[in-house]
Amino acid sequence: MQGKQFDVIVIGAGHNGLVAACYLQKAGLSVAVVEKNDWIGGAAVSRELHPGTLYSNCSYVCSLFRPEIMRDLELPRHGLQVIAYEGGAVFTRDGDYLASYRNHHAHRREFARFSPRDAESYERYARDVTRQCRFVQPLLLRTAPDPAGLMPGDIGELLFLARKVMDLSARELALMARFWTMSVADFLDEYFENNVIKAYLAISGIIGTALGPMSPGTAYVLLHHYMGEVDGNVGAWGYARGGMGAISQALAASFRASGGTIVTGSEVGSVIVRNGKATGVALANGTELDAATVVSNADVKRTFLKLVDPQVLPGSFVKGVQNFKMRGSSGKLNIALDSLPQFPALPGDCPSIRGDLHFTDSVERMEKAYDDWKDGKWSADPFVDMMIPTTIDPTMAPPGQHFVSCFIQYCPYKVEGREWTQADRDGFAKSVLDQIEQYSPGFKSRIQHMEVRTPQEIEAEVGLTEGNIFQGELTFDQLLFNRPVPGYAKYRSPVRGLYICGSSTHPGGGVMGAPGRNAASEILKDLSRRHSHMSEAHEVF
Amino acid sequence: MAGMKAKLGVRASLQDHFRTPQLQSPFHPRLASLMSGAHWYDWAGYAAPHFIRDEELEYFAIRSSAAVFDISPMVKYRITGRDAEAFLNKLTLRDVAKLKPGRVHYTAWCDDDGQVLDDGTLFRWSQSEFRLCCQERHLPWLLDSASGFAVSITEETAEIAGLALQGPTSAAILKQAGFAEVAKLKPFDIAGWKHGLFEAMVSRTGFTGDLGYELFVPVNKALALWDTLFAAGALRGIAAIGYDSLNRARIEAGFIVANADFVTSETALRADRTRYPDEIGLDWMVAMEKPVFNGKRAIVHAREKGLMRHMLVGLEIEGNEPAAGAILYHGKKIEAGLVSAAIWSPTAKRNIAIASIERRFAGAMANDLWAEIYAMRELRYQKLMKRARIVERPFIKLARRTQTPPADF
Amino acid sequence: MKFFDVVIIGGGHNGLVAGELLARSGRKVAILEAGERFGGLAASYEFAPGLSAPICNFISKIPSFLHEKLQLEKHGFTNGKTGADTISLDAGSETLVLHGSYGAQLSGVTPEENEAFQTLRKRLMLQARLFADLERQVPVQPGSASFRQKAAIAYSMAKQRLSGTEEFRQLLRMALMCVADVTEEAAIGPRLCGLLGFDATLGYRLGPRSPTSLMGLYSRLAREIAGKGGGIVANSAAEGIAEVLARAASASGAVLMAASKVSSITMENGRATGIVLESGAEISARHVVSSISPIATFGQLVGYQNLETGFGREIALLRHKGSVSKLFLALDAWPDLKGGARYVHAPSTAHVETSFNAVKYRQMPSDPPFEFVICREQTGKAAAIVSVTIANTPYDLDAGWTGGRKKLASSILTRMNLLVPGLRKSVIASEVLAPPDIEARFNLPGGHWHHHDYQSDRMYALRPALGAGNYRTPVDGLWICGAGTHPGGGVTGLSGYLCASELMAERNGRWPA
Question: Which whole-number Å values give the CA distances from C89 to A252, C193, C330, C345, C370, in the listed order?
Fold first, then answer.
């Protein structure tokens, strides 16, 4: 590898880094991806942490990954398969459950068990949210314009946005203005009366955020979970067959097939900057790699506060990066079970067990879980998003055995300001397992192996600062042209030749691949390279 | 606590609905036994027949003898109370004060923006009792509209079974079955029918533009009603039919169907797809003399400012190729609209269609309208550009539809 | 039956301002007040026999252009040059005081903290200028903006853009942020963070960590700008703004009718034609202007049955549960405090946030933040009157307010006694006005100061709802001008002024404009 010359070095083999690398390599550049871990994938990995069982131990479901990218990079040919799953359920404290079904009438009748009115209000709710999705989706694969900028590109993009807004009716405009700033709890109150239904729908407003369902701005987060699709089925969620690592593996295979180089087990120590221009990277072991273009898939804080000498950056930019909010708010329990857990409330043939399972049946319980986090504690009564992908993916565990992914909110980066101890980790895991055990007696006894991940583990292993899974909060001050730093939302940085392509950039996290593609597009523009291998974003009709 | 448990009991007892996402209508046993296969489609969560044995023969049953169509899946609301009339006056476009007890009228309702939410029939049993029948579910809208009124609203779709008996011999069959009052029923009249086995509500209404009746009974009397009608109609050509033949009849009669000929405003994902009543031919319903009703301000405003951009029209298209889904052009070039329903009319012997066109092409420019029809012929499209003429709806007018007392055909 | 050109429902400050302006224009105006006194929440309240205190401790200075327009000077009301000092009661090495226009000068802080605060203040003031501009404009209705309206907004935005690229970017970044993050970024000390967090959220039903909570502070700073740097001044029990405005309205020829509670708005063919009083008397009018809460106006006086469903649904959904309580104290001795100043207990962001948590679950916070003012008692029955405004006390307290009032008074007094030793034993009379009390006494559903939540989704043209955002309503002839309309609460008179100017410019009275 030494001695070989590269045009581009990508720091970090996360999915966005790989997406960017693929597009750049396909444009005829010679690209090397340098990854600190011995494996690739960042937060989209499948790891065999228990013999025979693959763990999607970070991200665990797939919906937002842009189909344009899958097509351009021929990911299906390189092994990627995304399989849709059926609904899910929230268990109630009174021994019942509320399920979600793919069949429209079953879905309505299920909601009607709790409130006939809400069952029908859901139609209006779905319509309104879908209208918002239709507005936002076309923005995903576009670089956000700088509203303070005066470049023709900015003005063109601003006009594009303005035209989109002008096309809206007064009522749509009003809904949009409200939707973007409301809390998911208030938003749901405008449609629904039943607490269980609201709790179930509020989930998509908080996953991954450091906000509670009553925090303004969380209604918008719904979109990040609704605008995905599985094969054009908008709003559907799926599993990557073989775990989330299948996405990274397919990307890596595509990258290598087009001649790219991936170096694992090599941590980048710093980005070398000469005369205000990036000239390569220095590995932690001292090796220097030269390249005229350096692309960092690491989050914006790690990139500019750790890898780049602050002396070469403008003070206001450094301040902006420091001000960027990356708050770890979630943890995970990844569990190998010797058998399928039983949920007495759920009829044995109910398909919901193959979807997302939850145990918080009111918005208030979810909000209280958030209050604990604000005080620096893990939630005593946590919100858990539990999935058992092995119910439909036969590749992840031996027949009859199961992999269970429990995503947990809220979990602080530091416990009341101090580092996590083993006792803390045990206490955190216990709070989750105790909750599950209430609804699935015998769950604990089925456990063969369990991995506990707090934001600290996520930071240490994946490199996400403070363990924030979106590489930065999805609040309005950190979206679009504000992401990550106002004036630097176009994947470029104050250092010429140094770019960022992670979820810290527009449009943010959720295993979309969009930041990586958008960054590649901007880099190719700077290098005056062709874009012909980059298909147009699918239109939203 | 005990109350909560009991409530959970009801709730939990309904859990297993997921095993049967498609319900069966109370007439299902009879329909299924007559059917030649499994030609079901989904109507509001119920299995409903596309056809029973043969669409074409079923169409002629409507026009020549008597056809029985199961309307049980139609959404039905029972609206009662002191303010029921006032409530319905605010909810719907027409003046409900003019609807006498024992009468039915066809109506529609809008949101605040004057966009049509649905159309349906409103039955008035008495001063304070109504039934509203429609295509879509509207419980939240009805409940919110009822704020401030002494009125109670309950959905009774699952409790009431309904049959449409349509066709020239339908009156005779009812008479034969023992319903003497049938002779007196004028179009849109309602009467009670006390039969030995059941009590039915009969209205002289229908969706075929023919002589016909609709009968409603509690679900546990559904099969008794069916059997009574079929026994009485055995010699008068009674036949069960599916939606496909009914659809032909309704197009001939010029009736529109929600979410087929227009998009209801509560389901539209694209705000420009919704319609004012005037844009789907329902302007005659709008009772402007009522002080307040949903959509009034917006409709007044749109009429004043000329904001109605579309128009629903009946078309006669040259040739014999049905133009369903065809794009309409002005001067064969400028896109002018879309055909939402079209058939070759066996009764009128014409190629007819219901279409939505931009208003500016409906006036003087209407004589240069063309339908672009793609006729699939053994894996090849035959592309036709056929002249379309705007004509009056209904496409067929049958004297027997309104004749009272009806003749025994 | 009596006839007026305009009948105004509610004699609060907005009703009085609108009444004055409309009467002065030559229209025949009646202002109907349900209570005995005019002024609504801007008036004073007799909490014990012979002892009165202002309900609103502080009033925003009436913007100077409006001050002149209303000729308040003539009626004996002077717009003071400087606003009230704000004094933090919470422990530090020195007492923290914000002097001048929202801390134009600080005392009791380190030089570093002072510099950090001034940098932040400067930036926020610049951003609040946009708010101050928008507060004086009739909101542009989505889809129907006139060229003049568009130009006014473009001008306000252009002013922001001309303040520099960096400042403009910061505005677009910060506008929807939470106040806690902003103060944390600025690295000002915990007491200032607590104080700004308190000021940004008092009455808004948000915590300092709630995104969009910075808007509350903008709103406050906009008043500083409108009042030319003397944003808030202490209200007075004896001769407050309420009395002055009532006198001004009266002098302009408006008929002021106290003890005249309106029971309904009469309608003819969908148009408001007048009102019926609870006494049964009817008054007809060409225009009816309601300054009371939109929920009461539409829900009670018009009736949902007379509104189209979508609009009625929006009104019924307005979040209107108040969370601010009052505690009035009469003292037999003047404590070691400065009259006319604003004292605040809000030691830190976490403190304010924790007390807000309680509101979410309808609980009483254990140590709610509060502000108070102390003033002389006029009749000599007491040495001093203290009027305390307490944040984060939920309208819908789970345990009920019956025991809640006592509990609240005791917890506030305990805290005050710690901050001002000896204060508790000099209390000779006290009363708590919880949100349900405010609801009952002022016919204000939810007892909400702003009539309904003043949050980002219910501002500007969407306040109170689409279709009623420019003081017109879907009921022809009916106008609204209370705190439930743009620009919301705070005693500025702007809603009344903007409504009156729209009404005067009206030609055919048709909706939409």
Answer: 61, 14, 20, 5, 10
Residue B235 phi/psi, 5-degree rounding, is: -95, 0
The shortest CB-CB distance from B294 to any of C267, C309, C316 is to: C309
User: Are C211 and A186 within 8 A, CB to CB?
Assistant: no
pLDDT tens profile C252-303: 999 999 999 999 999 999 999 999 999 999 999 999 999 999 999 999 999 9
Structure tokens at A329: 């708010």
pLDDT value of residue C81: 61
Contact C232, C491 (CB under 8 A): no
Q: Could you write out the three-class secondary structure of A231-280?
A: CCEECCCEEECCCCHHHHHHHHHHHHHCCCEEECCCCEEEEEEECCEEEE
Is B155 at the interface with chain A, CB within 8 A? yes
Q: Please give the share of chain B, as a percent, with pLDDT higher than 90.
A: 95
Assign C508 a pLDDT band (cuts: 50, 70, 90).
very low
Query: Which of B83, B91, B147 has its CB closest to that of C316?
Result: B147
Give the three-state DSSP class for C97.
Answer: strand
**What angle do helix axes A116-136 and A104-114 make, rounded to 10 degrees?**
130
Helix axes C111-135, C179-186, angle to 10 degrees: 140
What angle (nearest 5°) sits at the alpha carbon of residue B339, between those of residues B338 and B343?
Answer: 170
pLDDT-wise least confident of A399-403, A517-521, B101-105, C52-56: C52-56
Residue C384 DSSP label: E
Residue C378 φ then ψ, to 5°: -80, -35
- Provide the chain C residues 404-463 that lie in CB contact (below 8 A) with chain A: 455-458, 461-462
- Residue C270 near chain B (CB below 8 Å): yes
- Tell me the backbone φ, ψ of residue C508, rounded to 5 degrees: -105, -5
Query: Is residue A59 pLDDT above 50, yes or no?
Result: yes
Amino acid occupying residue B285: M
Average pLDDT over residues B21-29: 97
Gap between the Cα atoms of B113 and C467, Å rounded:
11
Strands (E), A380-483: 383-387, 402-409, 447-453
